[in-house]
Structure formats: C-alpha cells, structure tokens
Amino acid sequence: MSRDISIEHRRLKYAATINDESLPETTGSDYELKYVDIGNVDSYGTLHDVVTYQFEDAPSRARRIARHGDVIISTVRTYLQAIAPIEKPPENLIVSTGFAVVRPDSKLFDPGFCKFALRESSFLWEVENRSTGVSYPAINASDLADIRIHLPSLNLQCQIADYLDRETARIDALVAEKERMLALLKEKRAALISRAVTRGLNPDTPLKPSGVDWLGDIPAHWEVMPIKYVATVGNGSTPAVDNVDYWDEDGFPWLNSSVVNADYVKEPSRHVTAKALTECHLPTINPPAVLVGITGQGKTRGMASILTIEATINQHLAFVEPRGERITAEYLRYVLVRAYSFLRSDSDGSGSTKGAITCEQLANFRITLPPENEQVHIVRRIQEGKHVMDRLQQELNSSVRLLKERRAALITAAVIGQINFSPDSKNCRRIENKAIEVNGDSPC
Using alpha carbons only, what angle is made at residue 176 by residues 88 and 119, rounded to the nearest 5 degrees? Predict the structure, then answer.
C-alpha cells in the first residue's frame, strides 16, 4: 500500500561537505593526475575525454580532489548544468576549481540520491538565480551550500535513486539511439552533396581523373578550374566601431562572419553609412553570391552561405561572386560545402596562428565545373534530398528535446515527492503529473 511522503528540506551544507580536499602547492612536479574540466562533463552527467597531466604541466585550476560518492557541480557558467557523480574514480582524479565537490554525509544523504537532488528543477533554478555575471555567470561555494535540498529518509532516498537510475537509463538509451540516427542523417546529407558535385547524377557517365586529390575521378565531360576563372573573390573590413559617422540603422547592410551559420543570408548584422563604404573601401556585393568564413579555429572558417541581399562584409568573410553564366552561386556553394575540410586543412596556420583562408587561396582553389544546365539539375536533386532529410532531422531533434524534458521532469517529480513508494518494496505509482510519462507509458 502506498503512503504519503514526508520530505525534509535542509540546506545543502547540513547534509554534505563541499570542497574537502585539494592538492597542495607542494605536490611533486612529476605527480600524474587525471584532470576533469567543465567541458569534460556532458548533459547526462557523464565524464569524457579525461586528460592526464603531470602536476607541473597541469592547468592551475587542477586542484580539487574528488572521490567515490562525491558529486561535482559547476560553479561557473552555471547555465551549462555540468553536474556529475564520481563513481569508482582513479585515486588521482582531480577536478577543476570551477567545480564544487559535494561530499554527502552518509548518515543523512545517499550519494545515489545526491546526484539527482542536485538536478532537481528548483535546486537548479536557485543555482542560476544566485549566480552573478553575464557572460560567465558563477556562484560561490558558500551560496551553493546555502541552497535547500529535498531530503527524505535515507531508505526512501535509496529507493528513489534506484528507480531513477533505471528510468533515466531507459530514456538515455532512447536519446542515444535518436542521436545515432541524427549522426547517420548528417553523413547521408554529406554523401548526397559529395557524390552530386564530384560524380554528377548519372551513375553510368564515363569518368576521368580530375588531377585534384579531394575530387578523385569526375565525369569525363566536366572541367576542373580555379574559382578565379569563373568568379570574383574578395573580402571586406570593419569600420571603427566608435565612429558614429560609420554606423547608421538605416544604412547599407553589413555582415559579420556569424552569417555563414545559415544556408541563406537574408538579414544584415548591422548597417554602415555611405561614408564608411567609401573611406573603409568596403565592397558592394550583389546577390546571388557565396560568402565564406575565412578566419579562426571555430567552425565558421570554411563554411559557405548564399547571399540573397545586396550587402558588404567584414574582414572575416570572403565573397565569391559568379561572373557570367559558367557557374551558379547555388552550385558553387555546394562544391564549397563538400570542400569544407580541405579548405580548413589547407589554411591551418596560414596568415595567423589561428588559421586563415586567404582570398588568394580561395581564388586558386580548384573546383568541378559541369555544364550550366547540369549544375541546375544537381542543385535541384540536392535540395530535394535535403528537404526530406531536414524534415526527418527536425522530427528527431524534437523527439530528443521532449525526451530530455521528460527526463528532467521525472527527476524532479521523484525527488520532491510526487511519486510514492511502498515502504516494503521499490514499486511506485505515478501521481497526477503526466509530464513524467515517457513514450505514453507510466514510468512505474
């Protein structure tokens, strides 16, 4: 028979200690440690890509000692919710000072329950609400310790933890399967583009060597030539941001490198004045043209988009404007999408330590050039295939998002007492909250 749950609310500092142990500065320089930073904790609370250092080479943040049964919770960039249980770690596991190491009092607080109590929605809200700073919101350990947690009896904590381990594992397996499908879909999209712009649409077309490593064999009637023979390549600049004579909300569209995150550029980043266009030697780019990210180690270097508005650009973008009718902007973009990794590898370290694609490199980059009517058919086939795959991707992303929301709701419902457990068993029943259902079934 089920019963009502009576749950005590207690400040975290009265159920656990925080940051008990740290490596001393006197640690031997050759001491080998396994280091966990915030980026090594995923949204499920799993540690990955743990790095081995000797103490003398380790980041200065590598100081907190974490042991079995502890739970680490990020105190910087708290919106990331980097929270992970420490289970059977190596003796030399060290975590960043960007984490608080929470060590539950075994007489009051079950470690298995702790990892869920610190993911309960009201606790997370308090962490973010008490964080200060805009770009890197952070909370100090004393404020974290002051947040109240739900603390049922130790026996009930164990039941809740066992139940949530089972149910979250089931949800996580579903999410992992859908994420594998998303990865396969991404590979299929890339393969569609790659084959279309290197082999064409007719599998029976005779082939010839292209003479370009990344292209391989291509249809015998296609040409291969540098971009500069069919398009104009150039880049822009950024007018002085503090010069009011250069910026005007009603001025000419100006774009920064973030625009290449979209397939089509339809809106400006900012607007510049006619004076800025003249004095800063900004190019006027007519659509349709292709924009390419050309600087930095981030993903935008090498990415390409179609420009649909008349605009100018900053120095981190290049424009490729087709001349005449030998190549279409849409086809050119798909060729550059296929060439993404090759453009990046050719430009690593060029121009700066961060990597850059120069306009000269881009102009001399050799691409396939089918007849124009064939380019049109290739673009159409790619867009048709992408339309189907984009719809599937949206459905999968929506499903993953719902599963993650249900996982969070299930944790909160169990921790705060919306699920009753029999005093003599680990069976449970759902109480009123349909948000905790997974795939239409009761989680019990």
Answer: 55
